[in-house]
Specification:
Blueprint (H helix, E strand, L loop, with lengths): L1 H18 L15 H11 L13 H19 L6 E3 L4 E4 L8 E7 L4 E8 L5 E9 L26 E2 L21 E5 L6 E15 L5 E15 L11 E3 L7 H7 L7 E5 L5 E5 L19
Parallel strand pairs: 4-10, 5-9
Antiparallel strand pairs: 1-8, 2-3, 2-12, 3-4, 3-8, 5-10, 6-8, 7-8, 8-9, 11-12
The protein binds 2-acetamido-2-deoxy-beta-D-glucopyranose (2 copies).
Length: about 300
């Protein structure tokens, strides 16, 4: 296939060169799975090659066309880039007043994996989840529209977890630590009054899937082990954690982009009924309009 592309660009180049001399050059296009191409391949390989040719309009024939179409699109996008969504699905949910009217999605973390229903927040960076709780919102019962209990995370129960140490470059409270090897603490104050999450930073696996063929991808990300929440977080908002989608280096989109899994972007799309989807690495269609971020406190 690479050779076919090369040939076509050669023909184009010849056209340009020859045009200057007022010659006309024409090229005959032969579909690469046509009988004519098949005959040519057979004679080139010495008779036997033609037998590998797929029967036109067979299931395998269409599968091969779809595969090569996908490859071509990938090549145009740049093979490195793909779109990812949480392994539980790209769906986002709006759970109404009980959950503070925010949008949520299910994510899977750790090994063995545990599911969390996290609020999506484009205004902050950290992903935190209730973890080895000292002060967390209630996780069982009383979640009206949900049919399952929410979970707590515990680094000790995940084989792939690792505490971030105080000397890690993403440990912003590192200077408050007694020693460089200690686990890195975090504390985030949110704009709602008295609303915060604090605990220790942990590195673990976030389970994702590719949008193209739903292949599973395990990405190492940084998570706030949220041991102590306050304010709105004890009052029905984000009881099972919050996924920060901001520009900071610690956010999930930034981490995925840094490791080369996606381009540094994501999309959140909402339907009329407030359900929606989230895609990491999505840049949307080239013709779409965009709205700049609104500065908050002049930042
Ligand atoms: C999560 O764990 C469940 C049960 O152990 C398993 O069936 C599922 O495949 C896991 N999901 C991922 C994305 O690893
Ligand atoms: C925030 O905390 C302070 C000090 O504890 C308290 O006086 C104040 O009423 C709290 N504000 C809200 C909105 O709960």
């Amino acid at each position: 296939m690479a050779r076919a592309c090369f040939l076509i660009s050669l023909v184009v180049a010849s056209c340009l060169v020859w045009k200057a001399h007022s010659f006309a050059l024409s090229a005959k296009l032969v579909h690469r799975f046509s009988d004519e191409a098949r005959a040519a391949a057979a004679s080139r390989i010495g008779g036997g090659g033609g037998e590998r040719w797929l029967t036109r309009r067979s299931k395998e024939y269409y599968q091969m066309l779809a595969r090569s179409d996908l490859l071509r699109r990938k090549r145009r996008l740049g093979a490195r880039y793909q779109m990812l969504f949480p392994s539980e699905g790209s769906e986002t949910l709006s759970l109404g007043n009980d959950f503070g009217w925010l949008h949520y999605t299910w994510i899977n973390i750790g090994t063995p994996n545990v599911s969390f229903l996290v609020a999506l927040d484009a205004g902050s960076d950290l992903l935190w989840i209730p973890c080895d709780c000292i002060q967390c919102a209630p996780l069982s019962g009383s979640h009206g529209s949900l049919d399952k209990d929410l979970s707590m995370y515990s680094p000790a129960e995940s084989r792939t977890s690792r505490y971030l140490s105080c000397n890690h470059e993403l440990c912003s409270l590192g200077s408050t630590c007694g020693s460089a090897k200690q686990p890195c603490p975090y504390r985030i104050n949110y704009y709602s009054e008295n609303t915060s999450s604090s605990g220790l930073l942990v590195e673990d696996i976030l389970h994702l899937a590719t949008s193209e063929d739903h292949a599973s991808v395990q990405a190492s990300i940084i998570i706030g082990c949220g041991r102590k929440q306050s304010g709105d977080y004890l009052d029905g908002i984000a009881p099972d954690g919050l996924l920060g989608l901001g520009f900071g280096d610690i956010s999930v989109p930034s981490s995925l982009a840094r490791t080369g899994l996606i381009r540094n972007s994501f999309s959140l799309c909402f339907r009329d009924d407030d359900s929606g989807r989230i895609l990491f690495g999505d840049r949307g269609v080239p013709t779409q309009q965009s709205t700049p971020f609104v500065p908050l406190d002049g930042k």
